[in-house]
Amino acid sequence: MSYDIVSLLSNGLVPLPWWGYVVVTLVFTHVTIASVTIFLHRCQAHRGLELHPSVSHFFRFWLWLTTGMVTKEWVAIHRKHHAKVETVDDPHSPQTRGIRTVLLQGAELYRVESRVGATLDKYGHGTPDDWLERNLYARFSWQGVGLMLAVNLMLFGPIGATIWAIQMMWIPITAAGIINGIGHYWGYRNFACTDASRNIVPWGILIGGEELHNNHHAYGTSAKLSSQWYEFDIGWLYIRILEKLNLAEVRKVAPQLKFDRSKAVPDLATLQAVITHRYAVVTSYARSLKAACAAEFASLRERTHRDHHDDLPSLRNVKRWLLADPSTLSETERQQLAAAIAHSKVLNQVYSMRIELAALWERSTESSEQLLARLQDWCHRAEQSGIAPLAQFSFKLRRYA
């Protein structure tokens, strides 16, 4: 009898080999990630899908056990992040708070914002407000993680405390740190959003698809985060499985860009497509004009060097400034860009037409007919510019459908 008690205390009810504990830890943390991305993020914060009540209750219960996060608080903070992105009011932007702060203190930034009543009142609407939420999950938010510790110790013995510690660190590191930090600081971009969002890697597995953060900021309400053929969103895979089992209903996904190759003149459908896919349009513009800008800049640098005025900024900076939202540039950057394009008709035209193109979806007071006339005029001037890549981009743009 005493041996059984000692064995139970040492190994728990479910003794495993070392690799078994690794698998259990990975499974537990992955379920937590899936709960965050499917329930909190895509379902609650953005309403990209609806979940069957049984699935929602499982996710809520599991998050209570493994994170202590309150649905209304998480949703409100995330919605405010989108509404105030990259400003001083953004709860966790590395652009304003510094990458080190967000990486190391992301969970604390969340806790601070969760105490702001105005944030919860303004952005926390539509979240669960039933008896369980009021009397258990929100009222005793940290008792759940204590229960998780007790369960882990009972099942696995002392090693259960290590598993629990990893569970407790998982979301603060991956979501509060990596996604909120690196996801707005480093990576690649499919869409030229006005914020600094990045896709960390094209395979969204470890963090449930949240690695595709730039895609998400481009189409915030989409239940699917992947957009390119080489990108994989495991969270979307789980949603599709739930959908097949009639446990989920997808409400919104990013619209797919279509082309009508027979179209000779931009019409209202073209205008609507350009506005809907505005981030993709700006990105395509940048890619189309990249080589032309590089060649013109090299020629410009050669001319200024020959005239002993070799004070141009780097090619990398000029390319970024040419195709960036002017509001994101500092006064110094705008001055350096103006000095660079003042010596080049090509660079000046590329920049000015980029600004004009963006104005199409920023002129909310103009009628559709007025905006269409502007788009048609833009395409005509682009095709008569003498800049081959700009003309080719226009030919492609007017076929949007």
Question: How would you summarize this macromolecular structure in one to three sentences?
Answer:
Helix content is 63%, strand content 2%. It has helices at 2-11, 18-45, 53-66, 71-83, 94-97, 99-114, 117-123, 131-137, 143-156, 159-181, 213-218, 234-244, 268-276, 278-306, 315-322, 331-341, 345-359, 368-383, 388-397, and strands at 49-51, 203-204, 232-233, 248-250.
Description:
The chain has 401 residues and is mainly alpha-helical. It folds into two domains: 249 residues, no CATH class; 130 residues, no CATH class. 63% of the residues lie in helices and 2% in strands. It contains 19 helices and four strands. The strands form two sheets. It has a two-stranded antiparallel ribbon. A two-stranded parallel sheet has the order 2-3. Helix 2 crosses helix 3 and helix 14 packs antiparallel against helix 19. The radius of gyration is 26 Å and the shape is elongated. 38% of the residues are buried. The model has no long low-confidence stretch (mean pLDDT 89).
* Overall domain count: 2
Give the beta-strand count. Answer: 4
Binned strand content: under 5%
Strand order of the largest sheet: 1-4
Largest sheet: 2 strands, antiparallel
Give the rounded overall mean pLDDT. Answer: 89
Q: What shape does the CA trace take? A: elongated
SSE topology sketch:
Elements: H1 2-11, H2 18-45, E1 49-51, H3 53-66, H4 71-83, H5 94-97, H6 99-114, H7 117-123, H8 131-137, H9 143-156, H10 159-181, E2 203-204, H11 213-218, E3 232-233, H12 234-244, E4 248-250, H13 268-276, H14 278-306, H15 315-322, H16 331-341, H17 345-359, H18 368-383, H19 388-397
Parallel strand pairs: 2-3
Antiparallel strand pairs: 1-4
